[in-house]
Amino acid sequence: MGGTTARAQARRARVRGMLVATHAAPAAVVTVLALVFAVGVGLPGTRTLLVTAAVAAGQVSVGWSNDWLDAARDRRVGRADKPTVTGAVTPRALRTGALVALGACVALSLATGVVPGLLHLAAVASAWSYNAGLKATAWSWLPYAVSFGLLPAFVVAAGHDGRVVAGWTVAAAALLGVGAHVANVLPDLEDDRATGVRGLPHRLGRRASGVLAPVLLAAGSLVVLLGPPGPPSAASTTLSGCAVVLAVAAGAVGVARPHSRAPFLLSLGVAAVCVAQLVLAADAVAVPG
């Protein structure tokens, strides 16, 4: 009886560990954003589900590959929040999972069509390039700009109706991605440096990065406000105002108290506002080709 209970507990721990290693929160945000874009541009129900599934598989592959490739580095700095450090899952299990998820992503992406499929696979490949080494270089921001910028382009192309993605959408998504990258790195700057990771935020330093993240995110918010045709809606104007206020607060705290977690948390608030604006403007994401 005791052995059965122990095995059941070990299985539950592995399942939890695999779930944690997907980086569930950001993966869910990106997947939901793709779903909203698909609904906003009027994709049929089946195609919307296909696009959403492809993005979900890609995000899972990226999350698992990140923890697989970072396993040794995470152990060296004692990252207790990582399942490979606690022993809940092994790097080998994450490698297998990442490759299986990537295979599913390839199949689902190409099922939407060759052009949209290749656009999405380029976005996923860009994210994998970050995990594979670009995260430790001054170009660490580039995969985020490329992957986020290609997401709405993939969704619009999946419609096969002659429309193309609006330029402002690509710019806003790229700014959101780079801002999210800088903000996401802030809590782990010291641990990353200890293992030789020196991406752009590490090279700029905590104070400068604490200011840069909210500035980029607020810029994305302003692009969403001013990009769509016609006068800005009251809701988008209000949200953009909130984003600017949060960004100013984050920047001020980042300068005055660079080791505070407040710039990171405030930057997450700005990112959430920008995502909300993109959701509201989803029907303007596609324009006639």
UniProtKB/TrEMBL annotation:
Transmembrane stretches, start-end: 20-43, 99-129, 141-159, 165-187, 208-228, 234-256, 263-287
InterPro entries to which the protein is assigned, alphabetical: UbiA_prenyltransferase, UbiA_sf
A Pfam family recorded for this sequence: UbiA
The organism's place on the tree of life at top rank: Bacteria
Record CDD domains: PT_UbiA (cd13956)
Cellular localisation: Membrane
UniProt keyword terms in alphabetical order: Membrane, Transmembrane, Transmembrane helix
Membrane topology: Multi-pass membrane protein
Major subcellular site: membrane
Protein name per Swiss-Prot or TrEMBL: UbiA family prenyltransferase
Originating species: Isoptericola peretonis
